[in-house]
Each structure stands twice: as structure tokens, then as C-alpha cells.
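(Structure overview)
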Amino acid sequence: MGLLKTASGLILVAGAVGLAITNPGLAAYEAYATKQLSEYISSTVCQELPANLNQVLQNPCSTLVENNQEEIRMLVREQTQRSSFVLFSLYQTRLAIPGLNFAPAYEVKAIGVGQRFFIYQAGEA
């Protein structure tokens, strides 16, 4: 019985150490969130724009998204708060475009664990 408890304890410790080591940092979240946001804008927002607006922009909306990845990443970086709990991290991003008060703001909450991210809440703020 003592050997079973010791083995179980070692497995739990090893699992906790593994989670702590693989707790993703803010840079990893920024890359993840930038990719997710870019895909969302290209597949949803760009598709809902009136056709004549794409002509006014002189570049298709999706091209603008593709060419401005660093700006999108900076927007995510500036509007994200991370709470680290050693084994996992919670991320809260409030996306609002500065100077566009008429545009809705969105809030995304995600958990990072084991080098992966899982969105558990998203919607208008």
C-alpha cells in the first residue's frame, strides 16, 4: 500500500511539474490570439462588408488583415491581461479599436495550459 501511495504521489508531482513547464506565456498567447482574430476578421467581418467598400479600400479586406499582422498583434498585446497560476494561465482580452467609439468592443477569455489555449467565453463587452 505504501508503494502505491508513493508512486501515485510521484505521478502527481511529475504531472504538476509538466504543467508548470508547459504553461504558455504571453508571447505564445499573442501569436495564438493574432491568428484567431485574423482568421475571424477574414472569414466573417470581411465577408459582411459591402462589395463597394472593398473597392474603396483598393485592397480586399483579407489582404489588409494579412498585411497588418504586427498591428493586430500589438492590439492584442495592449489589450490583454494575463493571470498566471503556475500550472495554467488565464487571459482576458478586451478588443476595442482606439478612436472608433461607435464600433463595438469584444471580450475574449481563454485558459492556457499544456502549451494550448482554450477560449471559454467570447462576445461583445
